[in-house]
Amino acid sequence: LLGPPGCGKSVLVETICGLRPTKCGSAILGDVDITSLDPRARNVGYVPQDYLLFPLKTVEANIVFGLQTQGWSHSQARKKIDWILELLEIGHLLKRWPATLSGGEQQRVALARALAVQPKLLLLDEPVSALDEGLRERVCRDLRRIQRELKITTLHISHNLEEALAVSDWAAVLDNGKLRQKGTMGDLLRRPCDRYVARFFRSENVFEGKASQNDDSSSTVEFAGGRIGVSGIFTGPIEFVIRPEHVKLTESEETPNSLSATIIDIGDRGFYRRLEVDVGERIVLFVPIDQPLEHRPGESIKISLPPKAIHVLS
Fold first, then answer.
1. How far apart are CA 264 and CA 98, in angstroms?
2. Are residues 67 and 20 both part of a single domain?
3. pLDDT tens across 99-151, in order?
4. Structurally, how many domains does the chain consist of?
């Protein structure tokens, strides 16, 4: 579940697990209405953003806590969590205190505590946001592996696109408490439903134009940057988007949808260069770092907008 800070992601998760009252609507888990159930009766595992480990309990006591609230003795609960300790590789941490753990270790202990009760649904509220980039990538891979091994439905909250790409089968975008779009990450990246979703997925190239039908499978669009062809039948005012990585440099006038452009800015992003150009509209494109680029800001170049890479929003 994706969205900017303040859009309602954490509120939704806290409502599902029963930490917030439900003012209207229902929470259905499988075929069971859990809306009015006590949080402990919902069979939901929850890892909050700051992990909330009990500071005066050892790692072992933290992990078995949920089982003990269900009536298991400490010794019974301890035997029941062996598989989790092996899965998360944290058996050596059992006698440690939370304050002595690294961020990654705390995250694993919080996840173990949530999994110990064998929940039907696992809720992860930005579980890797406090970790450094290298550790974040590793933990995301581990989360994906664990989810696949346990086959447990997981709602993973994030505002980070790379994180979502690493862990998700399906994704949804939230805006001010409303669901804007859901689908695979590929759907959301390449076929956003509106300008908000396109902008959230870093599609800087969103334009307005006027379309007219060419034939049974294509249309012509006039916009401030010129005249281009698009796949599909459209007429009248439209909005369309093309991702920066799909805009190409070209030398030929014959290339479909070629436009003359003036370079405004060139930025080095390590693996690629970010070019901002003016065609009558500002267009951003990404050029692979191994592709020769002899031009400088102020110089003229030609770019092309491949028709099949253009997505019409409305």
1. 51
2. yes
3. 999 888 898 899 999 998 889 999 999 888 777 777 788 888 888 988 898 89
4. 2
